[in-house]
Write a structure and sequence with these properties.
Largest interface: A-B, 50 and 47 residues
Radius of gyration of chain A: 19 Å
Number of strands of chain B: 2
Low-confidence stretches of chain A: none
Order of helices and strands of chain A: HHHHEEHHHHHHH
CATH topology of chain A: ABC transporter involved in vitamin B12 uptake, BtuC
Number of helices of chain B: 14
Largest sheet of chain A: 2 strands, antiparallel
Mean pLDDT of chain B: 75
Helix content of chain A: over 70%
Low-confidence stretches of chain B: 240-317
Structural class of chain A: mainly alpha
Shape of chain A: globular
Number of helices of chain A: 11
Structural class of chain B: mainly alpha
CATH architecture of chain A: Orthogonal Bundle
Strand content of chain B: under 5%
Strand order of the largest sheet of chain A: 1-2
Shape of chain B: flat
Oligomer: heterodimer
Chain lengths: 288, 334
């Protein structure tokens, strides 16, 4: 039993890293622009479909497709922010939500229209491989996905701390007026941010297709999951998003093992309700 | 006369005439249009009603609820379960359903407003409660779990049992929508309505000028959830009589994937998921292929997905993952 629990925890941690990357995208977008991306899971599913398409049509391994998918999602996110979302940055919150909810419905139904309601998975060679460590096994696909997710999260960290653009984005997030005063092109930075956020979630989608089969209706689950993770970790906090991803990944995995797989999200949502009520700033952030 | 003025406000005479003509058209419509346009019209009026329920909370009091499907589903489930288990008339079940939904709305509202959650936090709280309950209902055997609650066919269709053809359902929902419109208009022009508007525009200023903000918001969420529950009862009961011969020679035989839906002409794709937690009502009567057997047994019903319909049950572990899992558990090294 203990072995099972540790095994489930390992699986949960591995999946949780990909969840963390997904939530990171949401957190970046919110942290900088204060835009709540209700179409987040939809972008994830678009990433999954793109990876699947690249695999089916061009035989590109999803792991190698990650940069391509991320680039495509970056371009889409950049354009979306420039063309559609920018005018909504300073309007009432609910109008923003409605815009992004509408966007999410459009994306899901486009996926449905194009790819149909059936699930699509990729069949890579190493699909059934696993690594053994003592009594525990590590699914190869999960390990690769988790490692890639962590690598991308590290790249993102470097981007925000080491590059000029990353620093400008943080400056614009910290003080909008100040950024304008020193001559930063804030709308462009916002578009870049949205692009980076979309690229993150797209990459997470491309990794997720290794573990889960793509299907349009996954989108709503991923959106909610991303929200749960980000709220639990603290809205706008990047380390919080990663930690939240791990926490939710493990909790889902353990709930699936110990109680019932179909009940696993109850715990995520229960946790969300508790955190919202008692610690709306998130579990891992100090500020109230 | 004052009441009339409150209802019409500063609407011009021309507008009033146009409204009256529109109402007359809606009343007369079933006599002139076919069954398919009627099914669309039923949907239109249904969404108008549900929208009105949501409007009380968001439009009047400015509280964004994305979890209204919760109240819809609770209302529908309560009435349907009472009818299923005890043969209670849906109209009585409706009262129970409204009370249950108002209780849920009250809890969500109380927690949200007491802990002063605003904006996205409140919206997420409403989604979280809706999702939480939906998943629990998937495992709630008394109401059929994830397979849904299939209502028994009673021998006596009629208004009392809320069983009948589309025309009856059309007039019921039309009456509900008209009532809701009038009631909302009256509420909006009452003292309470002005309080709501003040809360919506600026809660702090409203509080400062003596409006009980918490009370106003609570009343809004209670009324809104109650109204949504009534819509849910209607939607749960919305079934046309399914005589056997009709099923055998009916649309099912054409191999139309959406033929067993409540709305003739809708395919699986359109009805699959009409939206998400935020929007009231969708895919109420989606049935999967394996459920059709139940339908042929003349059983009809609602699904757990009433709470937030989507294709949860389509997500099964595919064989290859099952194999991978089995191998992983067996500790096989590849």
């Amino acid at each position: 039993m203990l072995t099972d629990i540790v095994q489930a925890t390992i699986m949960g941690l591995l999946t949780g890293m990909v969840y963390g990357l997904m939530a990171l995208g949401l957190s970046v977008i919110f942290g900088v622009m204060r835009v709540v991306n209700f179409a987040h899971g939809e972008m994830m599913v678009v990433g999954m479909y793109l990876a699947w398409l690249l695999f089916e049509r061009a035989g590109i391994d999803p792991l190698l497709a990650v940069p391509l998918v991320a680039a495509a999602l970056f371009a889409a996110g950049y354009g979306l922010q420039r063309g559609l979302i920018n005018p909504f940055i300073n309007v009432a919150e609910h109008m923003q939500f409605m815009l992004l909810l509408a966007l999410s419905i459009i994306i899901v139904n486009l996926c449905l229209l194009i790819a149909g309601p059936d699930t699509h998975g990729v069949q890579v060679d190493y699909m059934f491989d696993s690594y053994a460590l003592g009594p525990f096994t590590f699914d190869a696909v999960r390990v690769y996905a988790a490692l890639a997710a962590m690598a991308i999260a590290f790249l993102l960290y470097l981007f925000f701390t080491r590059t000029r653009i990353g620093k400008s984005i943080r400056a614009a997030a910290d003080n909008h007026t100040g950024a304008l005063v020193v001559g930063l092109d804030v709308p462009r930075l916002y578009a870049l941010t949205f692009g980076v956020g979309a690229a993150c979630v797209g990459a997470a989608g491309a990794l997720m297709i290794l573990v889960v089969q793509a299907q349009p209706f996954l989108a709503i689950d991923y959106t909610l999951l991303a929200f749960v993770i980000v709220i639990v970790g603290g809205l706008g906090s990047m380390p919080g998003a990663l930690a939240g991803g791990l926490l939710i990944g493990v909790s889902e995995s353990l709930a699936g093992l110990l109680i019932q797989p179909s009940l696993k999200s109850v715990f995520s949502f229960g946790l969300l309700i508790l955190v919202l009520l008692l610690r709306p700033q998130g579990l891992f952030t100090r500020r109230g | 006369m004052r009441l009339w003025h409150r209802l019409t406000g500063d609407m011009t005479t021309r507008g009033q005439v146009a409204l009256a003509m529109f109402a007359a058209l809606l009343l007369a419509a079933p006599a002139f249009i076919g069954s398919y346009p009627l099914s669309i019209l039923i949907l239109v009026v249904y969404f108008a009603y549900i929208g009105q329920a949501w409007n009380v909370m968001m439009g009047f009091a400015g509280q964004l609820s994305l979890g209204h499907a919760l109240y819809l589903g609770l209302g529908g489930y309560t009435a349907a379960a009472l009818a299923f288990h005890f043969g209670v008339s849906p109209w009585i079940g409706m009262i129970a359903g409204v009370l249950v939904a108002m209780l849920a709305g009250g809890i969500v509202g109380f927690l949200g407003f007491r802990f002063s959650l605003a904006g996205v936090y409140f919206a997420l709280l409403t989604i979280a409660f809706a999702e939480f309950t939906r998943i629990l209902f998937d495992h709630f055997k008394w109401v059929g779990g994830s397979a849904g609650l299939f209502l028994k066919v009673s021998g006596d269709p009629g208004l009392w049992h809320l069983r009948g053809g589309p025309v009856m359902f059309y007039y019921v929902i039309l009456a509900m929508a008209a009532l809701a419109l009038v009631a909302c208009r009256l509420m909006l022009t009452s003292r309470l309505g002005y309080h709501w508007l003040a809360i919506r525009e600026d809660p702090e200023a409203a509080q400062a000028s003596g409006v009980d903000v918490f009370r106003g918001k609570m009343i809004a969420v209670l009324i809104s959830s109650g109204m949504a529950a009534v819509g849910g009862v209607w939607a749960a009961l919305l079934q046309e009589p399914v005589p056997r011969d009709r099923l055998r020679h009916g649309p099912l035989d054409r191999g139309d994937p959406g033929a067993d839906h409540r709305w003739p002409g809708h395919s699986d794709r359109t009805v699959h998921r009409r939206g998400r937690a935020g929007q009231p009502g969708r895919r109420l009567h989606h049935r999967r292929r394996e459920d059709r057997r139940d339908l042929r047994c003349e059983d009809r019903g609602i699904e757990a997905d009433l709470l937030r319909p989507r294709a949860a049950r389509h997500r099964r572990l595919p064989p290859r993952r099952r194999l991978a899992l089995a191998r992983a558990q067996a500790g096989l090294r590849a």
